[in-house]
Structures are given as structure tokens and as C-alpha cells.
Amino acid sequence: MSKQDPLRPAAARRTLAQWLDYQLAMHPSEIELGLDRVRSVADRLGLVPPPHATITVAGTNGKGSCVALVAGLIGARARVGSYTSPHLWRYNERIAIDGAPVGDADLIAAFETVEAARGGTSLTFFEFGTLAALVIFRRMAVDVAVLEVGLGGRLDAVNIVDADVALITQIGLDHMDWLGDTREAIGREKAGIMRPGRPVFCGDRHPPDSIPAAATACGAHLACLGRDFDLTCTPPQRWTWSDGATCLDIAPHAAVHPDNLALAIAGASAAGYGPGAEDIRRACAWQALLPGRREVIDAPIPIIYDVGHNEDAVALLAESLQQRPVSGRTHVVLGMLADKPVEAVARRLMPWADALYPAGLDGLSTRGLTGQALAARLRHAGPVYAGPEQALAAAQAAAVPGDRIVVCGSFFTVAQARSPDHE
User: Fold this and answer.
1) N or C: which end of the chain has fewer CB within 10 A?
2) What is the pTM of this model?
């Protein structure tokens, strides 16, 4: 279906791809923050308040991992729906029931329901998808929905739902054109998911002052990592989670960041699903399967995939590389969008890069840097590559046993380079 013809009848939208094209063409802007339009359609559908408990996750980095951990912690005792974005390969990844992406038929049925209710209200791609997720969660009779904020918090479509429990991950500098150019301003936007009288947990060890100020102003009950709850390393090789009332001994998991797990345990407990050892083990295994989050594909030459695209996220990747050294060289495939902090990312990453393979993203996104433009910003004089797939092939050809390859810089970079089947 042509993107220039968004008003063709619903009968013409028979496939998921046609529905997604239709949604992309509907609204003049990719992003338009604000709740009035999406709330009006939700009201017509009777989606708010939802019949299930809601845990909302905001923050700059770690949101997807936190959602996966919370869903895994709760999943043995409740039916859990999760909503995340963006997806890597298929739109279905965004909406899952008990960890399994929903099928095309369920998505199309939900899209038809939203379309019938919206009338003349124009919705962005993300708003349409958010409403569809809420429709699916109601139809699937989930007990708990775990919702990842798309951008910010206060004015994000997810925030039409009053969170029973709010989780805020680490706060960093990203999307500054929309959210402000300081951690204080960005924290204020993230804090918009708080609700009076309800618990909110902050997983940033040094939160901006705007977080506690917002909690005080709205009457939310704030607990902070490192002050009110924590997960600490206990020799020999044990993690201990505690909130002053409960203490849990946990086996460490290399693929899970302890701060994300600490926040997820706090959130699940506040929702009435305090986890045991088996719940935590299952959740860590579940999150470890999440593609592109410092994900290691074991092979004679291992490949690490990471979707991190801002300085703080790449700092965590660099820390992971430092903690797990290899005997050989580290080959870095890097592709980034033009509006991301390329130079700051490079400062964090380049000390661990023995060989760099700049990859163009201009064929994958209108905001993507060409390989040449990325190389220029990195002051890299070596070869450049048209896309991540070509860059990864070059890295694999150059690498020898004892080396490792890192693919990072964007969701687009990982999605293009990494096969869904690890091939």
C-alpha cells in the first residue's frame, strides 16, 4: 500500500506490513509528545484504567533489560504482558505475552480495533502501537502489564496509564532535543510516570535532584538504589539483594547488570510478586536471551552485540570489555545515527578497539550517518563500509582465534549485522 494513500479502506490492509505502512503515513511527525490525542482514543476504547496491574519503566538506559527482568520475575505466578520498543527485526517483538511475541493475527485484530475507535484523530506510529498493546493485554487477560516508555515519560503515550509501580533506570544524556540538555531536565521528564501515593523506584545510584523533588511534589513514595535497596557483591561470587526488610542471596549472572536486577526485584516485590531464588534464576536467563544487550554469541571468535547508542550505555559496554579481556585483538564494528554523541561514544570505546570498522546506516535510517561521515567524525583513516553487514564480514575475515568482535552503536547496527538465528 502506498504511504501517500493513508485513507484507503481497512479491507486493503490485510497484512501486518500493510498496517505498519499505513500507521507510518498517518501522522505528519514521527514524534509528537502529548497525551490528549492518544488518551481520547483510549477513552473511547475503555482502555483506561486497565483491568490489570501496571508497572511502567522509564529511564535513559537499561529499560528493555529491566522490562525483561520484571516479566521474568513475575512470569511463574502471573500472566504477564510486556511492551517495549524499538524492535530489532519484527514488529511483533514489541508486544509479548509471557515472553512470547504475539502473532500477526492478534496484532492486526488490535490495529482494526484502534482504527475503528480513532475516528479523525491522528496518531503517531508509537501511539497507535501503544493502544494496540493495551487492547491485546485486555483481550489476553494479563494479570500484569510491564510498559516501557518510548521517549521521556511525562508526555509519552504509555503515560496515559497510571502506573501501580513506577521504575526509573539510569538517567543520562540522550534525546536532548526533546527532553532537555541536562540530567536535571531529563530526570524531570522521566519522573512524569510517578503517581501520588504509589511506589517509585529509581535505579540510578546518583539521581538528579529533579527525581526526589518530583516525588515530593506529587506525593509518590520514592526508594533509591544504594540508599533504600541494593544489590551488592558478596565474596565469594555471590550477589545479595536487600531492602532493609528482605535479604536475598543470588547467584551472579554474567549477562545481567546487577543494578538492573536490583531495580527489577524492587519493582516486582512492590507489585506483590516478591521473587524467590528460582524466580530470579529464571528472570536472569530470560534477560540473557534479550538480543543486543551486551549479548555474547559464543564461537571460536565471539561476537558481542550491543544496541547502546549514548555515552553512558557505551561506558557500560567498555566496562564489560575491560572486565572480560581476551588474549587477542578487539575488532569494533560501529554504526551510528547523526543525532547521537559520536565523539563521546568514541572516547569511551576506542581505548578497547584494536581495529575499527565504521559502518554506514544511511541506507537503514534517514538519520543514519554514512560510513564516510562516521569515519570523519572519528578521525579514522582506514577502510569504511556501506553497512553493518559488510563491516562485520570484514571484521570476521580479519579476526583470528583469541580475538573478539564488538558490534555496537545503534539498534540499526545490531539488527543489520546480527541474524535472528545467530547465523
Assistant:
1) C
2) 0.92
